[in-house]
Amino acid sequence: MTTTTTHRRSETAEAAAGGLTVFAAVLLLVSGVLDLFRGIMAIANDDVFVNTPNYVFKFDLTGWGWIQLVLGVIAMCVGAGLFTRATWARVAGVGIAGLAIIANFLSLPYYPVWSLTLIAMYGFVIWGLCTVRRER
């Protein structure tokens, strides 16, 4: 393999890594905004949500709104940090996306379509952040 081929492959790998990181950053920002709005809805007016009487994981919807609001704000901050391609933002992005998936799973009975949409979006964030490999 010549140095030209190695250099070209390295540039291609770097471009793909940058593209996936930007994809994950944008998706994390959008998901964070959606979680923020969901938290505001639950805090301001929890009549918007369906009340599920026999759900195993019962939560006060106002308290649940604060959890969603905080997760959304953290997700937006980490998403903004991903644009710098910092390693800390990548690790934090996987962590916050994992926590958000759990939170959205626990809130499935209250707002199922929104929860499933956010679970999918955060899943794509984890995929985008974990598939990027750095060249040595």
Automatic annotation (TrEMBL):
A matching Pfam family: DUF7144
N-terminal signal peptide: none
Membrane-spanning parts: 20-44, 64-83, 88-107, 113-132
Keyword tags: Membrane, Transmembrane, Transmembrane helix
DUF7144 domain boundaries: 21-134
Protein name: DUF7144 domain-containing protein
